[in-house]
Amino acid sequence: MSRRTTVARRATAAVAVAALLGVASCAVGPEPAPPVSAVAAASPAAPTIGPAAPTGTPAATPAVPARVPETLKFTAKTLDGTRFSAAELAGKPVVLWFWAPWCATCASQAWTVAEIAPKYRDTVPIVGVAGLGEQQAMKEFVTEFDLAGTPQLDDRAGALWRRFEVVEQSTFLIIDRDGRVVHQGFLDGESLSRRVAALAG
Q1: Which residues, if any, are the signal sequence (predicted)?
Q2: In sequence order, what are the residues at sequence separation of 6 or more whose Cβ sits closer than 8 angstroms to the Cβ of residue 139?
Q3: What angle do CA 107, 108, 109 make, to 5 degrees?
């Protein structure tokens, strides 16, 4: 066998071995990487960034609660047992109506209160302060004159009557937006309606 033939056979054998090794390495190697599009689909989406907020825009100013005047710094219970806080009425004109269940004058004014109080509930609240009587009689008075739609405070102990120095019924006490008492005394139905309408305006 010539030397040239021997070299040729060795070269052929080397090529064959290399081919076999290449096939083996493909068979046991790692799986091919997934396409880029598949990786992108599996990755969580990046957050979308919107347009930048314009500079110089003033921030929203939170509402400032109204200052509570001394005249409205009291709490009580209504005739049905609900807690009442006068401080929640700060910033509005308020009418306190001091009445007694046996009072004929109070009964004549009750119709006007029942008529106008719901109309001005959000602008000029009218709050009844019942005293000088029994709770059952007070509740019957509220039912008879349809006053349940407005707060009616149970002041049998007379705490609010003494606080505002009320000495007789029926007495209307009007507090303006700044917490000042601008009227204390008697008002007939017409005068009460006129004053409340003016305060609401």
Answers
A1: 1-29
A2: 79
A3: 90
pLDDT tens-digit profile of 123-147?
999 999 999 999 999 999 999 999 9
Which fold, 70-200? Answer: Glutaredoxin (3.40.30)
3-state secondary structure at position 44: coil
Residue spans of the domains in the chain: they are 70-200
C-alpha distance from residue 26 to each of 22, 29, 121 (Å): 6, 5, 86
Both tokens of 18, joined, read: 């290399």
Q: Report DSSP state, residue 86.
A: G
| 3-state secondary structure labels for all residues of 113-143 | HHHHCCCCCCCCCEEEEECCCCHHHHHHHHH
Give the closest residue to 132 by CA, choosing from 141, 124, 122, 123. 141
Token representation of residue 192: 């009460």
pTM, two decimals, is 0.69
Q: What are 201's two structure tokens? A: 């305006």
